[in-house]
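#structure-requests
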Amino acid sequence: MTLEEVIGSNSTEKKMETVSQALEELLVAAQKQDCLTVGVYESAKLMNVDPDSVVLCVLATDEEDEGDIALQIHFTLLQAFCCDNDINILRVSGMRRLAQLLEDDVTDGNGNEPRDLHCILVTNPPVQPLQCQALQDVGSFCEESRCRNQWVPSLELTAR
């Protein structure tokens, strides 16, 4: 391994960590401002009705979800829609961390199933737009990834 490869990999890891933190901040801030749509079906409905308000689509899976063909088909359709409508997309692993961030319990005391965290949309309504540096940071990361022909960048959220 050359020195450039070592330095490059360290800066890439730091960049990914920074973007992961920005994504976490963005999701928490968007949830507080009621700018999150959670769930594959709920997200598809919103994008059909108001795609202009969507600024980020987070597609989340863990290793056990990789074999879920139906979920992968939904992801493919959502990604195509996002590409057609210039919506930033991120693939994220770390469902447990997402549940922690969004304070979504795995078990519900009422016997209800937990929310489907596989697809999360961040909206930015024109009336009260999100004023969040994290949104700009994540958007810049997505744009840089597209410039490198990585249309759907991936991040890993680690449980804390």
